[in-house]
Amino acid sequence: MQERGMLIVLSGPSGVGKGTVRQAMLEGDYRDFQYSVSMTTRQMRPGEVDGVDYYFRTKAEFEADIAAGQMLEYAKYVDNYYGTPLKYVNQTLDSGRDVLLEIEVKGAMQVREKCPDGVFIFLTPPDLMELKNRLTGRGTDSAEVIEKRINQAKEEIQMMANYDYAVVNDEVPKAVQRIERIIESEHLRVPRVINRYKNMVN
Ligand code: 5GP
After folding, report:
1. pLDDT in tens, 85-122
2. Is the Cβ atom of 124 under 6 angstroms away from ligand 1?
3. What is the three-class DSSP state of 171?
4. What is the pLDDT of residues 143-183, one digit of tens each?
5. Which residue's C-alpha comes closest to atom 15 of ligand 1?
6. Is the distance from CB of 168 to CB of 124 less than 8 angstroms?
7. How many whole angstroms separate alpha carbon 186 and alpha carbon 40?
């Protein structure tokens, strides 16, 4: 029987650069996965192509797909729907290929519930790492800015607790390399390979 592919979920707070990292992964040599094109109700931006960047749909069309149980997950983000069509993900995983989702955090938590054997990667801003140094450093930020930043960091750390890996997006090529290493290691985990070995000895 064909081994199932692995579901890789790349997520993280807004503005962290998920889209850029995903794009770099698609353009790089590491092509051992399929990207699941999301569906959205937001306006197409210049240069975007329907079916490549997103499936651009009306609100009514999107809601019909939700009602028909055709979405693996979906979320409302800045007044628009974004979601992952279920069929492509299932078919691709069944064919033995890995699937990459690049989605915001609410959707990622729905996937976590439905697909607990997925690999959940939280992309974090380098700021989160540098925060303490910065805040305790020269003191150039106002008290108000410092408080906002601390609150934001707290929220992000709370979200991170639901993921398997935290990858700092300090430089895109480095973040991509870290993600590729995670994918490689995850493929070697015993629960993922043991059936292959069992079949070998039987
Ligand atoms: P943008 O409008 O900038 O392309 O995307 C806005 C946000 O929606 C980003 O954080 C992106 O990761 C997220 N997003 C894109 N596709 C999906 C999806 O299928 N599901 C969910 N939950 N979020 C998505």
Report:
1. 999 999 999 999 999 999 999 999 999 999 999 999 99
2. no
3. coil
4. 888 888 888 888 888 999 999 999 999 999 999 999 999 99
5. 103
6. yes
7. 30
Q: Which atom of ligand 1 is nearest to the CA of 102?
A: 12
- CA 120 vs. chain centroid, Å, equals 7
Q: Which of 16, 71, 103, 110 to mutate to test the pocket of ligand 1 (most atoms within 8 A of CB)?
A: 103
Distances (CA, A) of 180 to 21, 26, 28, 38: 11, 12, 11, 22
Q: Whose CA is nearest to atom 10 of ligand 1?
A: 104
* pTM (2 d.p.): 0.92
Supply the pLDDT for residue 138: 62
Contact between 179 and 133 (Cβ < 8 Å):
no
Quick one: average pLDDT of 19-42?
92
Task: Return the CATH architecture of domain 7-201.
Answer: 3-Layer(aba) Sandwich (3.40)
Q: Could you state, in order of their start, the residue ranges of all structural domains in the chain?
A: 7-201
Report which of residues 182 and 138 the model is more confident about: 182
Return the residue whose CA atom lies nearest to atom 3 of ligand 1. Answer: 19
